[in-house]
Specification:
This protein is of the alpha/beta class and 290 residues long. The chain folds into two domains: 140 residues, 3-Layer(aba) Sandwich (Rossmann fold), CATH 3.40.50.2300; 67 residues. The chain is built from ten helices and five strands, in the order βαβαβαβαβαααααα. It has a five-stranded parallel beta sheet with strand order 2-1-3-4-5, with helices on both faces. Helix 9 packs antiparallel against helix 10. The protein is rod-shaped, with a radius of gyration of 49 Å. It starts with 5 loop residues before the first strand and ends with a helix. It comes from Streptomyces glebosus.
Amino acid sequence: MTTTPDTSSSILIVDDMEENLVALEAVLGSLTQKVVRARSGEEALKAMLREEFAVVLIDVLMPGMNGFETAANIKGLDQTKDVPIILLTGASVDPNYAYRGYTVGAADFLIKPFDPWLLRTKVNVFLDLHRKNRQLAAQAEQLKRLLTSDEQPRGEGTPAAPPPGAAHTPLPATTVSASAAPHPPVATEGAREAEEPGGSGAAGEAGEAVAPGQSAVPPESQEFRAHSEPAPPPVSPGAGDASRLAEIAGQLAEVELLLRDAQGTDKARLADRIAELEQAVGRLLVSRGT
């Protein structure tokens, strides 16, 4: 069974000698991670700018830019400064090389020949650390998006949108009286024509006969007349002029309120009603001798 390499975390190995690169690839092959080669320090820097690596293994003794200079340049770049570095060197080198390697920012220092199991263990630690860092970054980004979506302001008083497929429930129709509603219903033009004798309303044009006992006035017009022309309350024979005057004044104020919102023939009829009430007031004043 062939194991597919995990390309989420790559390893960079840097050495000027081909046999050392082959040996490192053989040791790290069991980790199933992508391994990238570099033959010099300059080539290693270019590779790190093109691709993200979990860990870098660098040989100290290289011509041109040696391992210490390569590690220092890697730590000097913002894009690569957090990548861990393992320096590799021979046994016959200066004992101060380890101290110098840690000074330039190396995470570990191994002396050749090294134990393959030890190298794989150290590299595997940095691979796990890299994977966890990527998971934390992804979770932080997801949490940021959730917080941003929750903090978006909604307009005050704006109702929430109904879910898709929700049935629309119509509001129940209610009849509002003229004393409670400032805007009474206005009769349609066809309804007003039906009210007038000999008018050309919809019922007249269709030639439909009105059944005995049934009103020829449409219900809409009847409702408007009930609101726009309040019937005067009956006055007892013993009621005085002062009581009659108060009743007429109340009717006059109500009709004037309806007149502000009326249009067309309704407005003219209400104006005539106001004139009749004013005449009635005048007659009462004359009868009282004022």
